[in-house]
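Methods — Computational structure assignment.
A single polypeptide chain was analysed. Its primary sequence is given first, followed by the predicted tertiary structure written as structure tokens.
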Amino acid sequence: MPLDLFSQPHIHVSTQPAKILNILNLNIQNPSVDRAHQQLDWMLKVDWNIMILTEAKFSKGCLHIANVLGERGYKVHIPDQSDAVDDYAVFIATKNLPIEEKSFSFLSHSRINAVRILSHIGWINVLGIYVPTHSEFEPYKNDKKMKFQNQFISAFSSYLGDNKEDSHYIIGGDFNVIEPANTPRLGHFHRWEYFYNQFAEWGFQDGFRALHPHKDERSWSGRMNSFRLDHLFTSKDITPYIVECFYAHETRSLKLSDHSAMVMNVEF
């Protein structure tokens, strides 16, 4: 289950239901301490009240980010390091929100993190997820990715079935998956890798596509290809409250990360 490694007794946690959620979803690419300073300079220009930070590790750079965010009034939720199968993790930082740490049955994995936030429509489950990457040349990475996806699908499907009254969700992160309609079609992606479809089957909506149904957008670029790998899904009852959802590409242009940041603003 997620642990808060920082007691942060000075942090004010609001008891009023949230009316506005300003969400940053960013792959921080396990930074050095120097790059962590640069990332913090960029992140702290906006008063986000939820940050989902993927491709974190229990490293000096990532823990520096967590410490500084704590000093700036954030409550930082960090998985238990004993759940780190491969050292990668998702950190979630919240600020001035009524929160409850959420222990899901499948949360014994550092690549998944979750908190509950009280909003004007009730408790919202906020999940962060970092899916293992695909590789054309290293089959063991695909095996690892398939195993993770299957574990997540099985556990989360069971949770949803057993907790139907718990209906409000925002699920963000680096999913390392593309849309089935991605152009151009990519033959080296296997059918099982279209993990994206599973969220629609669960009844969630792609927050970006809800506002931009036809816009061609990419959040990561390699030497040969570029993809939209970072996503924010919401339950259908939250989608109407999304005011904006877009990708901030300066995190790539400034070389803060190899991923663009994703921003979503929700107003209830």
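Note: The mean pLDDT is 87.
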